[in-house]
Design goal:
about 190 residues
């Protein structure tokens, strides 16, 4: 146990001061009174509070840094969508759709992951179809990742890409969803191999 933990416990349970004074007097031959021991430990309160504040401050800074990292990823995906020809207003509308509709049904998905999936999907099926298929593709990612216990981002896109190469995504969207679900079950059943 560290010295500061002992000090915290002693200052919180003040009934220890008389016991410490007795130990000091009887065992160590010191002539310290209870008040002297209490006075010595009262100076620790400020040091302990300062250490607690420093630890709390570093935790807040770490939290802000995590938020900044998440924001960086989101801005990166927004930029990539714009570079692929999607306007900023359209990008923000797609992001709003994620927060309003998709995030409730797929709580593990993030806005940056959704924008990435949307960007991948629009390269396969076009922008209008990507709006309909991206929630399903990111849901496939979440289901497969949860079942396999590892990151599988892009697996929903890979399934749609394979079906697009067969020519089924645009000609038969409902059949494509059923086929993608069956393929996802196969992936999960085989352990991802």
């Amino acid at each position: 146990m560290d010295v500061w933990q002992i000090g915290v416990k002693i200052s919180l349970a003040n009934s220890m001061s008389p016991v410490l004074a007795l130990i000091a007097k009887d065992l160590l031959g010191l002539k310290a009174s209870v008040k002297d021991v209490e006075k010595a430990f009262s100076g620790w309160n400020l040091a302990i509070a300062g250490a607690g504040a420093a630890l709390a401050g570093s935790a807040i800074v770490a939290g802000v840094m995590k938020l900044a990292d998440g924001g960086k990823s989101l801005i990166d995906q927004q930029d990539k969508l714009q570079r692929s020809g999607v306007s900023l207003n359209e990008t923000l509308r797609i992001q709003k759709n994620f927060f309003d509709n998709v995030s409730n049904s797929i709580p593990t998905a993030t806005a940056s992951e959704y924008l990435k999936t949307f960007n991948e999907m629009q390269s396969v099926v076009g922008i209008k179809e990507a709006e309909a298929s991206s929630p399903f593709a990111i849901k496939l990612d979440a289901i497969i990742a949860n079942a396999l216990g590892k990151d599988v981002s892009g697996s929903g896109f890979a399934l749609w890409r394979a079906m697009e190469m067969r020519g089924t995504t645009i000609s038969d969207p409902e059949g494509s969803s059923k086929l993608a679900s069956a393929l996802a079950q196969d992936i999960i059943g085989s352990g991802g191999s």
